[in-house]
Protein 1
Amino acid sequence: MPEAAEVEAAGEFVMAVGLLTLELHIADARSLKDKRQILRSLKDRLRGKFNVAVAELDFHGVWQSSTVGVVTLSNAEQHVEESLQHVLAEAQRILGPVLVDHSVDLL
């Protein structure tokens, strides 16, 4: 894959897309309503603070588990990585032990 500077010099548009996947285990959730309240709060806070797209990706009908995806894009790969690291830090602060795993992928 060509370097971003080479592609830009050739007159093509470069876009870096990053996906942060958060695996959650919400032990205190006793219903889907409890789970949705936690997810809604997380999504609203991340969207408001970082201008990212946030959605539940898996375990829609399960009370205590969820997979949440966070997506951002930029013309600079480094900016995407840094942004997702900041989002991850905020998610860890908000969720604490509810966040059991995560991954960051550049697409």
Protein 2
Amino acid sequence: MKQKFDKWNNLKQKIELKEPVQFRQGQIYFMSVGQNIGYEVYGKKELYLRPVLVYRKLSTRTFIGIPLSSKEKEGSYFFTFRYTQKTLSTALLNQIKTFDIKRAEYYDGYINVSDLGKLKDKLIKLLDITPNPKGKGSGHSSKKLPKDKSSISQNVTNVKDQNNG
């Protein structure tokens, strides 16, 4: 695993030197999304590529992007559509994040306006926060994080010790 992260870190340094390209909302690019952690979506092959939909342009370089998968998936976290006659894609709505266009390797197509509208409706529904009936928080009950921060910093120290040893 360490080898994958090292390879990704080397590639990331080269990506930083690239010139940004012009892009628009609704376009789909194959992008170097990297080797990520846990259940975060990652790219494949040498350049860690994955198709990403430009959902919302934020600046000349950054945008809110939705990674795509070639596997058809169902549920509130997914939206399946075709952006070419041959290409069936599933937008991984639960993996939405900010991207820099420097990660783009090549342009691959665009989502049609009708599908973009349907995707937007599904995303709004997914991100809707249901208020807690008691008026506190979002009503989401996840495990509470420990108040003692030493456990996290201790793990970081252990990783540093392993790398230096």
Protein 3
Amino acid sequence: MHFSYAIEKGLNVFMEKPVTADGPTSKRMLKLAEDASARKLKVGVGLMSRHSRALQELANRVHDGAIGDIILQRGYRMHAPGGYFLSLPKPAGISDLLYQVQRFHSYIWASGGNFSDSYIHILDHLAWMKNAWPVRAQAVGGRHYRQGPEGITYVDQNFDVHSVEYTYADGTKFYFDGRCMAGYQQIYAQLPARHQRNGDRFQERRLRDALQPVQEPIAVACRHGLGI
């Protein structure tokens, strides 16, 4: 709704992810993106790595064959609960709708949950390096810790473990493991493997101002009429 309005008014847009929570909405957003491009509007999304000059250079080298053909990818995101990953029962004095909108990370309909918000970065990084999107996914997941320290059961819809096997059109596999639990080792890594020898790990280094790489190219593009 907001994106449609911005396009109608001829406004440049920066939108934070997760942008959509389901397939039909994603298709509508892609169509709106085409409309925005046809009107020469600038649109950016909060997948900040795409705007990192260092990762852009890395992607260019990988695409140019610097490490050979990628034949396997592995991604890991192990972290503690953040944002509104966990939600206790709704308190009195607030509607169900408002409570869920406020705590959008907890509800699949509102955000796609923790997977769409946190793990999308790993999928984005490795698909970017592969220069393709997976065509199939097979996954399992579950929830181990459902109660808070006070013994109250959480009502959010998130899993705290995920494992996904992605397959690209050429048969290449990408294995992802995610865990969202307090008190465990934190890992944020993506590893592509190439022919002949195991390959080259790259890991995003968070900048002090993580949104700066996104804001700068969009601002420059808007100011000078350039592409993003």
